[in-house]
Amino acid sequence: MYDFAYQKPGSLADAVKLLAADAEAKVLAGGQTFIPVLKQRLNKPSAVVDLAGLGLSGITVTANALTIGATTTHATVARSAEVKKAIPGLALLASWIGDNQVRHRGTIGGSLANNDPSACYPAAALALGATIKTNKRAIKADDFFQGMFTTALEPDEIITAVEFPLPVAKSAYEKFRQPASRYALVGVFVAKGPEGVRVAVTGAGQGGVFRVPEMEAALAKNWSPEAVAGIKISPEGLNGDIHGSAAYRAHLISVMARRAVAAAG
User: Fold this and answer.
1) Distance of CA 19 to the CA centre of its chain
2) Domain spanning 170-264: which superfamily?
3) Half-sphere exposure of residue 66, counting CA atoms within 13 Å on the CB side?
4) According to the model, what pLDDT value does residue 180 have?
């Protein structure tokens, strides 16, 4: 690692001030991506601002929304009875992230802010029509994700919570895991809720998470695996690497979508 200053603010306001005063400062949430990046010297922040202890974790449910604090860990989401009841697909998704150690350290806010093109949470946020809340504003998921490792967040903006609209009639997530990292080679989240029928794909797109309008239209008419079985996904614009070609990922999108719809019931 390079040398950097370690800052542990006592409040969200203090954390925002530290970021605003130093353009090279970076936020530390769970650190499951950030720490390896520092070790590999791929990032050289002047300061690291630790969000632990700022009261940004927790899960609340109302008649209209499920709200998860930004520093809530994947393990907490996965085992939450409230999440399992309100949005079963979201709890299942969280249980499949990384390994046990990653799930107990990684956070939902950190995952969304990082916007890794193979991360799971962006697919859930986009499919469920979530709203990402920050110290400044509320950002709809459709506007939040802007490309690979790119979001609408400003330099001094910190995610405080993620709000998922309720009630969700159906939801499920299926992913084809890269066996070593457990990242999604392709992951598909399907949902039927207040935002309508939505299908979001992670792991496949060169620009990160994206929706599939053709599948959404088909499922709105007929919610069944057969409704999406005949929809062919073009490999154009999809990732191709040593783990799978663009054509293979296009095929996997159809397979995972069918499985997710079947799992949602």
Assistant:
1) 23
2) CO dehydrogenase flavoprotein, C-terminal domain (3.30.390.50)
3) 23
4) 83
